[in-house]
Amino acid sequence: MNFKTIFLIFGVVFRFGHGASEEVMACLRQERSRVENPSQTIVNVVAENPAYLHCSVPPDAEHEIAWTRVSDGAILTAGNRTFTRDPRWQVSKKSANIWVLNLRRAEHQDSGCYLCEINDKHNTVYAVYLKVLDPPLPSPASLQKKSTRLMANMSGDEVVLNCTVTSTDKTDDDIDVVWTRDGTTINFNNTEKYILKVKRDAGVVIETMRIRKATMEDDGNYACEHSQQKASQIVHINITVILTASIL
């Protein structure tokens, strides 16, 4: 172990302190690099949601990368090829030097250590620990008479998000929905990017938002909200778009 490796390990300890478990620390100690991994090294995701593990390749590294699962030594991907039969796993190249290991729907057994191995002259290895969490307990808002859910799919080059707000009071016409992306209200005046259509019928409001000519620049956490009811959707755009909704 050289001085640089020792420095990086102590850097990990400094960043995460004693709050990180020994299992997590054992994972991160497998990192071998001249520079610290600029991407997130601990990824927390709620079960049934997608997970994204990033690997930032040094700018001067023009070599393929491979993702390996430490628990069984399985090679999941190499370059842009997937080697696992589990269809939930995919790999994508988000930019010139960022490779993303995509997990469509995380399950508890997916928790563990993953290595991004770069075939350069330094044999660089970055470690990422994935922790799959239990869904949060229902909030008091979820027990109210209104419910909100958000679903998404791809139509051509558009992402289509359908937000449905249902009230047990069929005469309730006071249902106003607010749309946000990463916590910021969406500007529907930008009709070149967003189209919104609304349908109302007996206590049910269905709002459909279309994101036109969707690219990776439109990645984000989209949400529709009414009163204290909120449904969110992580959108990650690749050649194939896989979306899983979650209700908060």
Automatic annotation (TrEMBL):
<dbReference type="GO" id="GO:0050808">
    <property type="term" value="P:synapse organization"/>
</dbReference>
<feature type="signal peptide">
    <location>
        <begin position="1"/>
        <end position="19"/>
    </location>
</feature>
<protein>
    <recommendedName>
        <fullName>Ig-like domain-containing protein</fullName>
    </recommendedName>
</protein>
<dbReference type="InterPro" id="IPR013151">
    <property type="entry name" value="Immunoglobulin_dom"/>
</dbReference>
<dbReference type="Pfam" id="PF00047">
    <property type="entry name" value="ig"/>
</dbReference>
<dbReference type="InterPro" id="IPR036179">
    <property type="entry name" value="Ig-like_dom_sf"/>
</dbReference>
<dbReference type="InterPro" id="IPR003598">
    <property type="entry name" value="Ig_sub2"/>
</dbReference>
<dbReference type="Pfam" id="PF07686">
    <property type="entry name" value="V-set"/>
</dbReference>
<dbReference type="GO" id="GO:0032589">
    <property type="term" value="C:neuron projection membrane"/>
</dbReference>
<dbReference type="InterPro" id="IPR013783">
    <property type="entry name" value="Ig-like_fold"/>
</dbReference>
<dbReference type="InterPro" id="IPR007110">
    <property type="entry name" value="Ig-like_dom"/>
</dbReference>
<dbReference type="InterPro" id="IPR003599">
    <property type="entry name" value="Ig_sub"/>
</dbReference>
<feature type="domain" description="Ig-like">
    <location>
        <begin position="38"/>
        <end position="126"/>
    </location>
</feature>
<keyword id="KW-0732">Signal</keyword>
<dbReference type="InterPro" id="IPR013106">
    <property type="entry name" value="Ig_V-set"/>
</dbReference>
<feature type="domain" description="Ig-like">
    <location>
        <begin position="138"/>
        <end position="240"/>
    </location>
</feature>
<dbReference type="InterPro" id="IPR037448">
    <property type="entry name" value="Zig-8"/>
</dbReference>
